[in-house]
Amino acid sequence: MLNVHFPRHGAILNHNHGTEDENSLTIEVRGVASVGNRVTVNGVEAERKGRSFSGKVKLTSKFNDIVIQGSGSFGDEQARITVLWDKKSFLRSNFYIDDHSFFLTDIAHDRPKSLFDHFYLKGLAETHKRYGTKFTLNCFYRNDHHPFTLSKFPDIYKSEWKDNADWLKLSFHAFSEFPDRCYEAPGSSTQLLKDFDLVKGEIERFAGPDTFIQPPVVHWAVCSWDCVKALAKNGMKVFSAGWRGVGPACDAALAKGLDPTVADLDIDLSEVADIGYGMSKEEGVYLYCYRTLYNFDAGCCFVRGANCLCNSYTPEQILANFEQSFNMKFGNECYGLGSHEQYTFPYYKNYIPDHLLRIDTAARTAYEHGCKPVYYQQGFLGNDAWN
Questions:
Q1: Strand, coil or helix: what is 348?
Q2: Helices of type H across the chain
Q3: pLDDT at 269 over 80
Q4: Average pLDDT of the segment spanning 178-182
Q5: Which residues pair with 303 in a beta bridge?
Q6: Which of 28, 205, 327, 361 has the fewest CB within 10 Å, making it most exposed?
Q7: What angle do CA 4, 224, 309 make, to 5 degrees?
Q8: 59, 83 contact by CB (below 8 A)
Q9: Could you tell me if residue 76 is inside a domain?
Q10: Looking at the structure, do residues 256 and 137 belong to the same domain, yes or no?
Q11: Residues whose CB is less than 8 angstroms from the CB of residue 30 and which lie 6 or more positions away in sequence, other chains included
Q12: Of 9, 6, 66, 4, nearest to 297 (Cα)?
């Protein structure tokens, strides 16, 4: 028996997980092995205490291989994992808002003097001025509620988009809001990339290439694995999602002082987690705790998404969610903020009157907790230390 408890394959580690200096991060590899077995970690004898073992490893590169070897009377066993060093990591936040088409429809129709004469962009700009918040607005090509496509948006605001491109980015989300989960079927990657190019082309036409950024999430955070790999190859290096169905079990374990990633949870970890790109609940549990995980098959990072989804939580609940996240002791330094555009608009059937306040509350709370606004798609999860 040889089981590695920490770190896991694909773990993204920072100074909270070990001792960091200018050139390395020293971590402790931990796990269990049969009593009496000799265990080495990268060729160095591990410390043993009963079934437990531990051994120090110095990470010096972005990607680092670790080999754990066990040998005894029943033969040899080996675990080989690769982990990533998030060098010079810092507290940071990424704010994306999904489902954009309403404000674009309004501006295309009304042609105001400035983009920021529109109440929605004006509200986001005010939040940016207060806290330095950076927003990614994920866009549909077609508005399914009012007659509009991105092809109808004028290019008369291109210089204004460019002047604000340091904090206001537009990105791809899907062709349109409906049908739901439109890229879920295997073999959907061809259509998805076609839609991606359509949206990107229109954004760059009317807002310029500086305004476009790779998306942090696909519509519904659901698409087939061939879509994930195609998008990653196309430049989307970070995928945010929610991994629905693991939160209650993780919270119950944490309330008992247990680590959900190694505890026996009352859920089938082999099941696919909804709102999570077809990944398992086991991966969802890890992401619930550690928030980030690298997938070598796709060649990209997965990040547990919005710590506070503003259209789902009141300002008071947003504050509570942040406190819960910051009190978790798993070394996470990436905090996701998110919402959906349509809830800001009085003509939307599910209009939330204080939606802009909720967005501002989330941005303010991240700011007050010391998070630096970043774009996850720039550098490594918003960190340019490896550039």
A1: coil
A2: 102-110, 119-131, 158-163, 189-207, 225-233, 247-255, 281-290, 315-327, 355-368
A3: yes
A4: 95
A5: 240, 292
A6: 327
A7: 80
A8: yes
A9: yes
A10: yes
A11: 4, 5, 6, 52, 53, 54
A12: 9
